[in-house]
Design a protein that fits this description.
The structure holds two protein chains of two kinds.
Chain A lengths: L9 H9 L3 H6 L4 H31 L6 H7 L10 H37 L7 H20 L30 H30 L12 H33 L9 E2 L2 E2 L7 H35 L6 H15 L14 H29 L8 H23 L2 H7 L3 H31 L5 H27 L19 H31 L66
Antiparallel strand pairs in A: 1-2
Chain B lengths: L1 H27 L10 H29 L13 H32 L15 H30 L8 E8 L2 E6 L35 E3 L2 E4 L4 E7 L4 E5 L4 E5 L5 E5 L5 H6 L1 H16 L1 H6 L10 E5 L11 E7 L1 H10 L3 H4 L2
Parallel strand pairs in B: 1-5, 4-10
Antiparallel strand pairs in B: 1-2, 2-3, 5-8, 6-7, 6-9, 9-10
Helix pairs in contact in B: 2-3, 3-4
Classes of the chains: A mainly alpha, B alpha+beta.
The complex binds protoporphyrin IX containing FE and copper (II) ion (CU) (2 copies).
Chain lengths: 597, 352
Amino acid sequence: MSATIDTHDHEDHEVHHHKQTFITKYIFSLDHKMIAKQYLITGTFMGIIGILMSIMFRMQIAWPSEPNVLFEALLGKWAPDGVMSADVYLALVTIHGTIMVFFVLTAGLSGTFSNLLIPLQIGARDMASGFLNMVSYWLFFISCVIMVSSLFVEAGPAAAGWTIYPPLSALPMASGGSGLGMTLWLVSMAIFIASSLIGALNYIVTVINMRTKGMSMTRLPLTIWAFFVTAVIGVVSFPVLLSAALLLIMDRSFGTSFFLSDIFIQGEVLHYQGGSPVLFEHLFWFLGHPEVYIVILPAMGLVSEIMASNSRKPIFGYRAMIASILAIAFLSTIVWGHHMFVSGMNPFLGSVFTFTTLLIAIPSAVKAFNWITTIWKGNLQMNPAMLFSIGFVSTFITGGLTGIILGDSALDINVHDTYFVIAHFHLVMGISALYGMFAGIYHWYPKMFGRMMNKNLGYIHFWITAVCAYGVFFPMHFIGMAGLPRRYYSNSSFPLFDDLTNTNVVITMFAIIGGIAQIIYLYNFFVSIFYGKKAEQNPWRSTTLEWTTPVEHIHGNWAGPIPHVYRWPYDYSKPGHDVDFVPQNIPLMEGEEELQH
Amino acid sequence: MTALFTIIIVLFVAVAIWQMVKIFDIAQVGTTQTQVADDKDNKINGYLMIAFLIFVYVITILCFWFIGDLPLLSNAASEHGSKVDNLMIISLVVIFIVQTITQFLLHYFAFKYKGEKGKKAFFYADNNTLEFIWTIIPVIVLAGLIIYGLFTWNDIMNIDEDEDPMVIELYAQQFNWKARYSGADNVLGKANVRLIDIDRANILGVDEEDPNAQDDIIVSELHLPVGKPVVFKMRSQDVLHSAYMPHFRAQMNCVPGMVTQFGFTPSVTTADMRERPEMIDKVKNINELRSERAAEIEESGQELIYEFDYLLLCNKICGTSHYNMQMKIIVETQEEFDAWLKEQTTFPNSLN
Ligand code: HEM
Ligand SMILES: [Cu+2]
Ligand SMILES: [Cu+2]
């Protein structure tokens, strides 16, 4: 129950305010609200690239090797006469995966909402270090530029899958993309990791030190808990990926043999001796698995908050929610081996990882049940953000359940690296986190831009997306169970799979429609910045502190002193109050009891 | 031509956006100023939630109906395969039940408790009994699955040397498979990529001096005697590959610099598998689909009529032709196998 004291002097900030120029306000901004918007816009831009890529390679799967106008228009010299080659397919898959996981759902999601909400919801005037925050964003921006520029390299960008397993990723003779393309990939990721680490440290310090008076850890909104724990996981696991990337760079450029041994390729024996690709897999997945929680936890936090507010009910099991976040965070660091059951590692390790993996299903189940109970007997306000939150729970359950199969080593033998895996992780991580992000954008748009998004366009966007997401990924379970491997540029070499072609066409149709639906969203997003209805101060009638700040952004967030906090963030429909929400900065009434503190 | 198409696409996008502007304007008219959901929105979206629940159920049923003749759940062609299939079926049933119930609760509550002005939600923040129940139920269910799973896993991965399995090497290279039989001594000759000598056609880098290598046999089509345990020792010469034999529920990565292994006992011959009614149906269906694309298939040089065969596929991204890295597997009787093996040249005779 420690509360910390606000050390910022408000007058100071007013002085800063007058000296701002265009450059300091919009470009090299130190203000967390502006940095949040920068993350969001950059992430959106990367997301457009990533989704366009997925639509292109889905078209290739549905209509293999047929000339396609879209390819001709977008891929240019890479698709002569509109026909895609196998190398280009692999490059597209690789960059799609990398962009979606890291650039959209790590930086775009965490970067946007941690920056926007941490200071506003804990009652701080800004991040602990505004300067580092700015550095973090600009490093992210540079890594985006490098990743995108790798698309224009002569021999093509990295094409070894987003997991970049060596030796394929280490040897330019093994794959065209493993030359300059892979170098740029590695450099981009190294910078990206630096950016994430700086950002994460800043979030951690801010949450620990800068909470307003009364904001104890057990009065924090679940969003903040999620961002905080995500940052901790990032600090623990990202450096391991960084070291893997550095060792890979050494193997590639300086002749070391960390991951390589006994290789004969294109008529010659290479000098490498004594390394092991399996070591790389361990290092990669030591980050890679926590990474999926880095992606999903912030989405969970946003959804918890939005569900409570729109159900006009407290989140059910606040403490259980915190406990399960902590349990997931801990377990997420000891399950990485479930990606390696058939990698050649000792089968005994496989048993251990099966055990830990199925353990992590328990806190996940607790969360799902708590969300369902939260909406039970609520008074649900079906705003677009609420729809995306309900959609999140739906896809999280559907995708999470198949984890029981993939986590079970005996069953993973046969579905490993098939479309079953694609279906699983897109639903549980990709689509769910994307829904969480959309929910967050619709909900906090008034806070970011001072205007409202159009709700009807929001409804259309949600329903088309929801139908298409299931239409794309649900059937993929079945083609995976039929044995169809992922990362195949065409299935026409296997008559065995010919009876899956029609299904593949249907999937691609859904993907195209779903992709087009995102145009509605983009339109709504960008047009509303200028022409949306002006927002009220607290449009969703929520209890958290960000809605006590003025609609117009001011440096330092609150014009007067920072509000103090007297209650937890979920006093919705509390008996004894006339209104159905009591903001955190309202003192307890006489005789009122605070819940379970 | 390209330019024309590009212009048309741009035009389409422009029209679409213009249309959307109009939708936007119209959408803004009748509603209140706020863009916050009102009772009408709650009601419409509440009903849509039920429609969506039905959609989820329908797509599940359609998938099982049309593409659910899962080769994974029947037709296992190895002895451990049926155990894997059992576990898979149990897991699928558990998943199916949980999925049906939880999706129902979620969408039904979203419909039932859709907001109305003046209604007040039920203030219900916590219940330790409930939390306990839904911690303990997954614990029990998962404990069952873990135990079953681990027994199956150990069973598959622990290769019983007493059964004297036949040792075969699977050798992966971009973008080809080779198999090496260990011959009468059932011991593979030593090998290393540094011994590869293309001029002498020693493509696997087998040690010519090693006595164990003298009866080794290198082939590019895998034959297995039915009912005899085999253990595959896997090697790769360049990048990671994965030896995936879906009909046998078998998969293991091939890793440069080390030898990995996987063992199983084939239980159904290729000939018997072709005779199974499900397989006859499947092949018939595939051939009907193929006849629709006959011209295209013949142009590509493939045979038009498909006949079932077991396959070894590469299932780890390995470069350009990853999608076409395969080897035929033929399971046959011991006599047929012996006869076939006798026909093959031994390693020393295969050298130039
Ligand atoms: C329009 C929506 C999307 C579609 C249609 C789509 C489709 C696909 C498909 C079919 C693959 C497998 C390709 C293959 O293995 O041959 C794939 C790979 C992947 N996708 Fe998506 N995806 C979409 C959105 C997302 C999102 C939101 C994420 C975020 C997590 C994501 C992350 C990935 C990753 C990590 C891979 C693996 C890449 C690799 O194999 O190296 N995708 N996507
Ligand atoms: Cu994992
Ligand atoms: Cu391959």
